[in-house]
Amino acid sequence: MVKKILMLCGDYTEDYETMVPFQALSMLGYQVNAVCPDKKAGDTVATAVHDFLGKQTYTELTGHNFALTADFDAVKTSDYVGLFITGGRAPEYIRLNPRVIEIVKEFFADNKPVAAICHGPQILTAAGVLKGYKATAYPAVGPDVTLAGGEYVEVPVDQAVVDKNLVTAPAWPADTAICREFAKLLGAKIEI
């Protein structure tokens, strides 16, 4: 039986923070069900490419259209071994969907592995699940982590923070770190 990962994303999810984890987790043999509120399998979400070009914040360019692989309305968290929350602008508005919040709470209640990158922790703060956790995020989201009862940890942009069942990372340069640590939490065995 193939183990399944749920991936929460939405329009203007960050391109690298969506496609790279989707492909890496699929390569490890997981079935990654990418979903978005109000959309079905085969629908697409627009992605954005965020880059760091020496300005006070990131720049945003048009990315790819990313095809969703499952229906949001059909999600049953009991079918999944882990949850990956993408970054970009999507978290700021999909967290307004009550079912998104329920999904996150269910994963935490079951102590299943959860990964959130960049702005993804905005969904964790809205769900009220960060109390007692150390987490990182895009620096502008750091105050949200603190206000939600978490301990914000500033790390280099290519690193990840692991605390209990949660792994977080500040941005796409940490794709390798967050995917590696999430795979460990999932119990994946990688043999070379």
Explain what you see.
- Strand 8 (134-135), helix 5 and strand 9 (151-152) form a beta-alpha-beta unit.
- The mean pLDDT is 96.
- The strands form 3 sheets. A 6-stranded mixed β-sheet has the order 3-1-6-7-11-10, with helices on both faces. It has a 3-stranded mixed β-sheet with strand order 2-4-5, with helices on one face.
- It has one domain: Class I glutamine amidotransferase (GATase) domain (Rossmann fold, 3-Layer(aba) Sandwich), CATH 3.40.50.
- 47% of the residues are buried.
- It is globular and about 45 Å long.
- By secondary structure, it is α/β, with parallel strands linked by helices.
- Helix content is 29%, strand content 25%.
List the helices and strands and how they pair.
Layout: E1 4-8, E2 13-14, H1 15-27, E3 31-35, E4 44-51, E5 59-67, E6 82-85, H2 90-94, H3 98-109, E7 114-117, H4 121-127, E8 134-135, H5 142-147, E9 151-152, E10 161-163, E11 166-169, H6 175-186
Parallel strand pairs: 1-3, 1-6, 2-4, 6-7, 7-11, 8-9
Antiparallel strand pairs: 4-5, 10-11
Helix pairs in contact: 1-6, 3-4
How many β strands by DSSP? 11
Note poorly predicted spans.
none
CATH superfamily: Class I glutamine amidotransferase (GATase) domain
Shape: globular
Distance between the first and last residues' Cα = 23 Å
Strand content: 25-35%
Q: What does the largest sheet look like?
A: 6 strands, mixed
